[in-house]
Amino acid sequence: MQNAKHVVVVMNGTARWADEHKCSLGDAQRQSLLVARLIVRAAVAAKVRYLTLCGASAELPGYPTSPSSPARPASAQPVTPIDAPDAFAAAEREPACWTGRELTHPGDDLVVTVRLGQSGRRDIATAVKLLARSVQAGRLDPDQLDEALLRTSLVTAELPDPDLIVYSGCPAGEHRLRDDLIFESAYAEFFFSDRLWPDFTAAHFLQALSDFASRQRRFGKTGEQVSAGDSIASRYVAASSSIGS
Predict the structure, then answer these.
(1) Which of 106, 131, 153, 164 is exposed most, by the fewest CB atoms within 10 A?
(2) Whether 215 contacts 1, CB under 8 Å
């Protein structure tokens, strides 16, 4: 079984956590930021190469955004310092996608991307518009259009497709795909946790990685067509002992 090269973590439950703890949403968001830093360190310890943190979708009620604002490519400089206490609150008002370089330390072999208030459907629509304009301008032959070209036109073009998508804050039995990274999620493995994001820990993250390591990814093939690799679950057990929960 291969290592999870690109892991997406969906940060659910911050508002619910604020209600349960009778605190302000701002306090809950500050706790969420602390958890984000913790998960980044866990990803570094587990040798994950790409980590994407997804926040509230633009389509969720109560999270106003500006759909006209273009999403920035994952390689762009941060549009909002992620270490600012109000970063998450600001992103709920304005869609944001940037590389969270402030979350990592010099020398970390990890690319962290933060997607807040993003819509996977809107990403696809934007990419299609760009391709349509290229066809209209005569720069692109319609017969050249294929899924590979569409993939390279998405805002996430510089990132590999996710191997594992971890959902936090999912009540038991409630497993739903959110409107984010829709195109990129094909053949990704999913892990659902009922732990609200502000209560999410490195141990929960490593549990998801260990579960992923025990699976056989088939990509639409049969088990006989996929060579069974060596289990790497022990790597995550070792990683969990090197960091706090």
Answers:
(1) 106
(2) yes
Write down the domain spans for the chain: 6-242
Angstrom distance (rounded) from CA 195 to CA 178: 17
Question: How far, CA to CA in Å, does 82 sit from each of 54, 121, 143, 161, 183?
Answer: 13, 25, 42, 23, 26
Cβ neighbours of residue 114 closer than 8 Å, sequence gap 6 or more: 52, 53, 55, 82, 91, 96, 97, 98, 99, 100, 103
pLDDT band at 112 (very low <50, low <70, confident <90, very high): confident
pLDDT tens, residue by residue, 118-153:
889 999 999 999 999 999 999 999 999 999 999 999
Tokens read off for 107: 């020398």
pLDDT digits (tens, 9 = 90+) for 35-93: 988 999 999 999 999 999 988 754 343 433 433 333 333 433 333 333 333 444 444 44
Residue 10 sits at φ, ψ, to 5 deg, of: -95, 120
Class of domain 6-242: alpha beta
Outline where DSSP puts E strands in 13-163: 50-54, 96-99, 111-116
Structure confidence at residue 210 (pLDDT): 95
What's the alpha-carbon Rg for the chain, to the nearest Å? Answer: 18
Q: How many helices (H) and strands (E) does the chain have?
A: 7, 6
Mapped onto helix, strand or coil, the DSSP state of residue 114 is strand
Which alpha helices (H) appear in 61-146, and where do they start and end? Answer: 87-93, 120-136
